[in-house]
Design a protein that fits this description.
Elements lengths: L2 E2 L2 E7 L5 E7 L1 H4 L5 E2 L20 E7 L2
Antiparallel strand pairs: 1-4, 2-3, 2-5
Length: about 70
């Protein structure tokens, strides 16, 4: 059964593990060609992100349905 494309929660951290930035991104922000994922398929996603002058050394990516 096809499922709706989930949102992605992205957290960026510094060398101390402190949160620098956090943002929820939806499929439109990734330029996804489809809003659904077919059974047994993959949907490659890509986004260009900038943390400004902050030094990012870690990240967490979580998939969720809003």
């Amino acid at each position: 059964m096809p499922v709706k494309t989930p949102a992605i929660d992205l957290s960026l951290t510094d060398t101390q593990g402190q949160l620098i930035a956090r943002r929820a991104l939806n499929a439109d922000e990734f330029g996804a060609a489809s809003k659904v994922i077919a059974p047994g398929s993959e949907l490659p996603l890509q986004a260009l992100i900038s943390a400004g002058t902050a030094r990012v050394t870690g990240y967490t990516v979580e998939v969720f349905y809003p």
